[in-house]
């Protein structure tokens, strides 16, 4: 019988512990060039709330937390503004954040009529499928996918990352972070495969969408984002992990 890393325990037992826990994804942490500009876009266009803000002058940065509900129950975006830095390289490894909305056509109209955001992909069925989506980049260029979906407790529903080796990444998120593979979909006509990874169902919580583009084994990571935080164990142990690309 295979054994796990905890002395003498079978692998099945060692891997059982994450399932007993209330794990969830907490924050995505990334850098922006103008905090007020991003807060205006996320609140006025996307409908998020500014949850809190903290300035750390001794380290010359300010954080702002935004999301659709309180941080103790909802995923949040943790923006970092470094004094004097107004531009970052987002890289190609980051794909998008996704917002679930009951009427993507209406949301896209709200975004188009605002001065702070735009739509770069008009609402309509996803290529190769039927779900209605649209794309709206934020002022720094971080992409937001708008997904038409019924009411959900977590509208901030996906973080999409591109990976160079899908099975290896799936194993990492399963074994190291206790996530489950929720579904996998191959879209051969557009030459990519996606794997949804998370701690609960896709319509109830934020999930990681891993995208593998056929034949692409490496992505430029840029310098704009740092980490996604998850909560492990019942007491708050924040496990910071770097995006696992290849
Ligand atoms: N080559 C794409 C593969 C992933 C992909 O195409 N995803 C779908 C959403 S699941 C998409 O963006 N479709 C574009 C569209 O329907 O216009 C990428 O790396 O972003």
UniProtKB/TrEMBL annotation:
Q: What is its EC number?
A: 4.4.1.5
* Gene3D superfamilies reported for this sequence: 2,3-Dihydroxybiphenyl 1,2-Dioxygenase, domain 1 (3.10.180.10)
Pathway assignment: Secondary metabolite metabolism; methylglyoxal degradation; (R)-lactate from methylglyoxal: step 1/2
Instruction: Name the cofactor(s) required for activity, per the record.
Output: Zn(2+)
**Residues at the active site:** 145
The entry's Zn(2+)-binding residues are 78, 96, 145
One GO biological process this protein is involved in is: methylglyoxal catabolic process to D-lactate via S-lactoyl-glutathione
Reactions this protein catalyses:
(R)-S-lactoylglutathione = methylglyoxal + glutathione
Residue limits of the VOC domain? Answer: 24-149, 155-246
Q: Which UniProt keywords apply?
A: Lyase, Metal-binding, Repeat, Zinc
What protein name applies here? lactoylglutathione lyase
Upper taxonomic lineage:
Eukaryota, Viridiplantae, Streptophyta, Embryophyta, Tracheophyta
């Amino acid at each position: 019988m295979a054994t796990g890393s905890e002395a003498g325990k079978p692998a099945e037992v060692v891997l059982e512990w994450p399932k007993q826990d209330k794990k969830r994804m907490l924050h995505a942490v990334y850098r922006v060039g103008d905090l007020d500009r991003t807060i205006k876009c996320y609140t006025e266009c996307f409908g998020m709330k500014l949850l809190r803000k903290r300035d750390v002058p001794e380290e010359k940065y300010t954080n702002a937390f935004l999301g659709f509900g309180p941080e103790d129950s909802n995923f949040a975006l943790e923006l970092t503004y470094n004094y004097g830095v107004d531009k970052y390289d987002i890289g190609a490894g980051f794909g998008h954040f996704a917002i679930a909305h009951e009427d993507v056509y209406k949301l896209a109209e709200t975004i188009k009529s605002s001065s702070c955001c735009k739509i770069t992909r008009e609402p309509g069925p996803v290529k190769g499928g039927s779900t209605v989506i649209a794309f709206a980049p934020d002022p720094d260029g971080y992409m937001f996918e708008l997904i038409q979906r019924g009411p959900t407790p977590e509208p901030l529903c996906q973080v999409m990352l591109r990976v160079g080796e899908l099975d290896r990444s799936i194993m990492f998120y399963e074994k190291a972070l206790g996530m489950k593979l929720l579904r996998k979909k191959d879209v051969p006509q557009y030459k990519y495969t996606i794997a949804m990874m998370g701690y609960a169902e896709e319509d109830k919580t934020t999930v990681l969408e891993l995208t593998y583009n056929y034949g692409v084994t490496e992505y430029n990571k840029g310098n704009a984002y740092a980490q996604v935080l998850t909560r492990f164990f019942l007491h708050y142990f924040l496990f910071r992990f770097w995006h696992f690309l290849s």
